């Protein structure tokens, strides 16, 4: 996990080392320096090692991303859809998370791309029936659903327990990064179960 959080720094340092090594190698080749051949070999090795490190890091991150399952949300378009989904989840004794989102909402997009797919969050979300109401179109059904849910801002995340009862203290309005949201889910687990 440390590698993933420091990835931009690792990438920048590796690229900087490669660039500095290339500039130094060019300088050595253009100017007479004692042990020129030895310097050239040493810098070539450094460039090679940095390149190998950079590409293995990228491959590792790609492999990790492919192993982490992205949570799948069920679309909800109306109050009837929501009530049906809540009833099904209650029958299966599963808590529910409803993401009320819009395509124009930058924090909503950040949840989708950063927070929900984060490994620790995705693992926690596996315990939930995941619903999503995309209200971008602002249709009468969207407006009725938002009014029914008392949505006052975006993104809004609403929770129901295993019995189908709303858990208002778990509600989230606004963005949380993966660490914050994971902690929120952990804290609310007692209320939601």
Which keywords apply here?
193 residues, 2 domains, Thioredoxin_domain, 5-stranded mixed sheet, Thioredoxin-like_sf, alpha/beta, 8 helices, Glutaredoxin, protein-disulfide reductase activity
Describe the structure.
- With 193 residues, this protein is an alpha/beta fold.
- The chain folds into two domains: 2-67; 74-192, Glutaredoxin (3-Layer(aba) Sandwich).
- Helices cover 60% and strands 11% of the residues.
- The chain is built from eight helices and five strands; from the N terminus they run H-H-H-E-H-E-H-H-E-H-E-E-H.
- It has helices spanning 2-5, 7-30, 36-67, 79-91, 106-115, 119-125, 140-149, 178-192, and strands spanning 74-75, 96-101, 129-134, 156-160, 172-173.
- It has a five-stranded mixed beta sheet with strand order 1-3-2-4-5, with helices on one face.
- The chain is elongated and about 80 Å long.
- The chain starts with a helix and ends with a helix.
């Amino acid at each position: 996990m440390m590698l993933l959080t420091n990835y931009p720094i690792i990438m920048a340092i590796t690229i900087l080392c490669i660039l500095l090594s290339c500039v130094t190698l060019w300088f050595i080749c253009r100017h007479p320096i004692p042990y020129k051949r030895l310097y050239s070999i040493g810098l070539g090795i450094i460039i090679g090692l940095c390149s190998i490190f950079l590409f293995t890091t990228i491959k590792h991150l790609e492999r990790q991303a492919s192993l982490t399952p992205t949570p799948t949300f069920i679309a909800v378009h109306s109050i009837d859809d929501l009530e049906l989904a809540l009833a099904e989840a209650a029958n299966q004794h599963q808590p529910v998370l409803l993401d009320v989102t819009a395509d124009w909402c930058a924090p909503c997009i950040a949840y989708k791309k950063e927070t929900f797919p984060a490994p620790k969050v995705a693992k926690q979300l596996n315990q939930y029936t995941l619903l999503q109401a995309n209200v971008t179109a602002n249709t009468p059904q969207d407006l009725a659903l938002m009014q029914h849910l008392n949505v006052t801002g975006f993104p809004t995340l609403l929770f129901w327990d295993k019995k189908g009862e709303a858990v208002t203290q778990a509600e989230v309005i606004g963005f949380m990064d993966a660490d914050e949201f994971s902690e929120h889910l952990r804290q609310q687990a007692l209320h939601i179960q």
